[in-house]
Design brief:
With about 475 residues, the chain is an alpha/beta fold. The structure holds ligand UAG, adenosine-5'-triphosphate (ATP), 2,6-diaminopimelic acid and magnesium ion. This is UDP-N-acetylmuramoyl-L-alanyl-D-glutamate--2,6-diaminopimelate ligase.
């Protein structure tokens, strides 16, 4: 595509050859190839402008900057907003792939991944090919595509959407993180449906204030044709105020049109009824927990708004496979205790996960968790307090310490723990922590491994070490004499 085509209809100034051919779009100089258009993004850590000479040396056909650079001998596009322009240019360059599929965006602090897998199960039951974009992996039908981010950078996102459209996806269920909304990764996409799950504490390192966090999440509903809102959440009004057009409310506690009734939660499933188009649907899902009702309600209401029939909704959820690392029971090789693998890494999700475990545990609930380094530090003591108040025993350990000192993170968690009478130990090494829990497990205990879920690594000082908690548990069970 020619440069002036990429920017057609956008406010910008082109200095140099505006008909130069553009082969691809890049925002990281390390991946630039001959003929690429390089976007200089002014980031938190670096100014992409610094890397423009490197991009030009590698053969970039043009660069996008916010001010003309007299020292750069290449065609330059001068724009006002770097990330917004990059997102819009990516929509055009990849030929607006989102317009060719039904787009469902899910935002909220917890439940995004789970909700997208529920939508996948429902849409596949209806015979649709589904694209999934999110934390665990991206998927085109059954094909798995590795991902680094929950919501990819705009250029990577549009490239992926194009692939999904070309491979015949009818619908895309994607997680829309608050980072992605602020950083304009989904700018330019019109979602057919936007879903709001809930808003509780997380990511205050990035957003700084609660109001900023609310404002970030609400941006999704400015760009959604239909907004599906959990009105039991305290921030629902903010989301609805941002909504551009139709709003559909759902609830578990209030008598609105879409409300869950007759809720029944067992140790292996969640069941409830919902009235849909004059029929009562009996929903059954293999993930225990009150929160599962909420996630399913969002998925059901969205699917219904897209015209998917009730039978497919019911059957799709019934047949849905477990979501990796989301309250997933692990094989204990005949041990008389249970082990649950979960991804709770926020105060609210930890509270929910422990509460669900407690509801069914015939014995103690032993919670093992840590908190990620270089992420919201204010949630650490809060999570310590929750674990102390709700668990029968807690093992405080490491999550992904990243560039922080593990013992310093643990000390912050302990501050909250010490406000309770909860019994606990601190074991910095996560493998040792799990080993301790298995060694000391009593009959009927539930060991709740919280925080790492599907992750197969532990990030320490910039390096990702192999750490798949499922594999670690297998190894430890074998070591401790529990053989299959
Ligand atoms: C906080 C955040 O989201 N930061 C994102 C942001 O980084 P940044 O603004 O700091 O970028 P920077 O490092 O200053 O670099 C500026 C520009 O120079 C470029 N550069 C840099 C070095 C170089 O050699 N050459 C070069 O061209 C970079 O590619 C970038 O375009 O823009 C980068 C791409 O432009 C992203 O890769 C980066 O994601 C970082 C790695 C990240 O960890 N993000 C996490 C927090 C995140 O987005 N998480 C959410 C999930 C949250 C949830 O679960 O709810 C997600 O959607 O994944
Ligand atoms: N609706 C919910 N409300 C509260 N907690 C939930 C909810 N759904 C799931 N959880 C808990 O949160 C954990 C993470 O769930 P999930 O991965 O679906 O959320 P997410 O929003 O995608 O998270 P992330 O922001 O990390 O991508 C689960 O393992 C479970 O413990
Ligand atoms: N998407 C989230 C995941 C956190 C998972 C937890 N294991 C941690 O590392 O804190 C983040 O990057 O903040
Ligand atoms: Mg997720």
């Amino acid at each position: 595509m020619k440069l002036n085509e990429v920017f057609r209809g956008m406010i910008c100034e082109i200095h140099g050859d505006e008909t130069v051919e553009i082969k691809d779009l890049k925002y990281d100089s390390r991946g630039v190839k001959r003929g690429d258009l390089f976007f200089c993004i002014s980031g938190f850590a670096e100014d992409g402008l610094k890397y423009a000479p490197e991009a030009v040396k590698k053969g970039a056909a043009a660069v996008v900057v916010t001010e003309f650079q007299p020292n750069l001998d290449v065609t330059q596009v001068i724009v006002k907003n770097d990330r917004e322009t990059m997102a819009l240019a990516a929509c055009r360059f990849f030929d607006f792939p989102a317009k060719r599929m039904k787009m469902v965006g899910v935002t909220g602090t917890n439940g995004k991944t789970t909700t997208t897998y529920m939508l996948k199960a429902i849409a596949e039951q209806a015979g649709m090919k589904v694209g999934v974009i999110g934390t665990i992996r991206n998927m085109i039908g059954d094909e798995v595509i590795h991902t680094e981010r929950t919501t990819p950078e705009s250029v990577d996102l549009q490239r992926l959407l194009k692939k999904m459209a070309e491979e015949g996806c009818d619908i895309v269920a994607m997680e829309v993180s608050s980072h992605s909304l602020v950083l304009k990764r989904v700018f330019g996409i019109e979602f057919d449906v936007g879903i709001f799950t809930n808003l509780t504490q997380d990511h205050l390192d990035f957003h700084q204030t609660w109001d900023n966090y609310i404002a970030a999440k609400s941006m999704l509903f400015e760009q959604s044709r239909i907004s599906v809102i959990n009105i039991d959440d305290d921030s629902a009004a903010n989301m609805m105020a941002a909504a551009r057009s139709e709003i559909i409310k759902y609830s578990v506690m209030q008598p609105v049109q879409y409300a869950a009734k007759e809720i029944e939660i067992t140790h292996e499933s969640t069941q409830f009824d919902i009235d849909l188009n004059g029929h009562t649907l009996h929903v059954e899902i293999g993930i225990p927990g009150y929160f599962t009702v909420y996630n399913a309600m969002g998925a059901i209401v969205a699917a219904n708004a897209l015209g998917i029939d009730s039978y497919c909704i019911e059957q799709g959820l019934k047949a849905m496979p477990p979501v990796a690392g989301r309250f997933e029971p692990l094989d204990t090789h005949g041990g008389s205790f249970s082990i649950i693998l979960d991804y709770a890494h926020t105060p609210d999700s930890l509270k929910n996960a422990i509460a669900t475990a407690k509801k069914f545990a015939p014995g103690r609930v032993v919670t093992i968790f840590g908190c990620g380094g270089n992420r919201d530090a204010t949630k650490r003591a809060v999570m310590g307090k929750i674990a102390g108040e709700m668990s029968d025993f807690t093992i405080i350990t490491s999550d992904n310490p990243r560039y922080e000192e593990p013992v310093a993170i643990i000390a912050q968690i302990e501050e909250g723990m010490r406000q309770t009478s909860g019994e606990y130990v601190c074991i910095v090494n996560r493998r040792d922590a799990i080993e301790h829990a298995i060694r000391t497990a009593k009959k009927d205990d539930v060991i709740l491994l919280a925080g790492k879920g599907h992750e197969d690594y532990q990030e320490i000082k910039g390096e990702k070490h192999d750490f798949d908690e499922k594999v670690v548990v297998e190894e430890l069970l074998n070591k401790l004499g529990y053989h299959k």
